[in-house]
Every structure is written in structure tokens, then in C-alpha cells.
Amino acid sequence: MWYFAWILGTLLACAFGVITALALEHVEATQAGKEEH
């Protein structure tokens, strides 16, 4: 069953990376929008 934990951990890491990237882009876009106005 080690492979189940390995796959779960890999998917969790990928999901965390995607969520972090989206969050950073959202923060940068928000800051850029505030600077323009």
C-alpha cells in the first residue's frame, strides 16, 4: 500500500503548487490593479 500513500502525496504536492501559483498571481494582479488607480 506504499504506492497509495506515494500517489496521494504527489497529488497533494502538485495541488498545493498549483494553488500557491494561482494565489500569488491573484495577489500580484490585485496589487497591480491598486497601483494603476
Can you put this structure into words, describing what you see?
The chain is mainly α and 37 residues long. It has one domain (1-37). Helix content is 95%, strand content 0%. The chain has 1 helix and no strands. It has one helix at 2-36. It is rod-shaped. The chain starts with a helix and ends with a helix. The relative contact order is 0.09.
Features:
mainly alpha; single chain; 1 helix
How would the global form be characterised?
rod-shaped
Structural domain count: 1
Instruction: Please write the string of helix (H) and strand (E) elements.
Output: H
Outline the biggest β-sheet: none
Radius of gyration: 16 Å
Mean pLDDT: 92
**Could you list the spans in which at least 5 consecutive residues all have pLDDT below 50?**
none
Helix-and-strand structural type = mainly alpha
How far apart lie the N and C ends?
55 Å
The beta-strand count equals: 0
Number of helices: 1
Please indicate the percent range of residues in DSSP E strands (runs of 2 or more).
Answer: under 5%
Share of helical residues: over 70%
Secondary-structure topology with pairs:
Elements: H1 2-36
Question: Would you summarize the structure shown here?
Answer:
The chain has 1 helix and no strands. It has about 35 residues and is mostly helical.
